[in-house]
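sanity check both lines:
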Amino acid sequence: MKFVIDNWMLFAVALVSASLLLWPMVSGAAGASALTPAGAVQLINREKAVVVDVSEEAEFATGHVVGARNVPFGQLDTKLAGVVKNKGVPLLLVCPTGARANRAVAAAKKLGYEKAQAVAGGMKGWRDAGLPVEKA
């Protein structure tokens, strides 16, 4: 006990360091990061991931991921089950910037799609990565 009292500053530094290292796991931020476009391509190729664009129809028509299905964010609760029947496949959600897609991940997980992920940067990130885009 005398050692602890004599070296209290070292223990305080160790405690703060451990807390900062563990904070992302405790707060849930560790799993909240979005999937990179390159990681999304790997999931599409290896695990037959389904891409769902949560943009509005006009935004979807200006350009979307090749093979993506359009389910506007406001209609996600009612239409997602009809578009993606297999809840076991990875579900990649995308929108113009990634903001709606991040919110859509929570909605999809509530519907039972546990492998739902947002593509980082949305369509902007997809285009910046030089990946193919098709127009409706």
User: Anything to note?
Assistant: Residues 8-27 form the longest helix (20 residues). Helices lie at 2-6, 8-27, 37-47, 57-62, 76-83, 99-110, 122-128.
